[in-house]
Write a structure and sequence with these properties.
The chain is mostly helical. It has three helices and no strands. Helix 2 packs antiparallel against helix 3. The longest helix is centred in the middle third of the chain and has 40 residues.
Length: 100
């Protein structure tokens, strides 16, 4: 390790910033981004299944029951995602008000 990097670490410690905090912040952001991507994929899957069920019904190869069931699953997943989004926004607003 060079003297300049040791000086930077020393300055960060004096300011109260640990050298590991950047690594933790990046790892946390990455994990949060991956969690959002997985959640988006979980919501998109019922919608793509519903779209294919509607196409099959239009072509005459799908049943009404299967189509309506797929549409209802897609609707429920969308409502669930919207509720989670609203909770996240409420939490964000609450955290932002703490600083004021």
């Amino acid at each position: 390790m060079s003297i300049s990097s040791l000086k930077q670490i020393e300055l960060q410690l004096e300011r109260g910033v640990s050298p590991e905090s950047k690594v933790v912040k990046t790892a946390t952001q990455s994990a949060f981004g991956e969690a959002l991507a997985r959640a988006g994929a979980a919501v998109a899957e019922p919608h793509s299944h519903a779209a294919s069920a509607v196409e099959q019904f239009e072509n005459g190869s799908g049943s009404v029951h299967e189509t309506l069931l797929a549409l209802e699953k897609a609707d429920i997943s969308l409502k669930y995602m919207m509720n989670v989004r609203n909770k996240l926004l409420d939490a964000y607003r609450e955290v932002m008000q703490m600083g004021a």
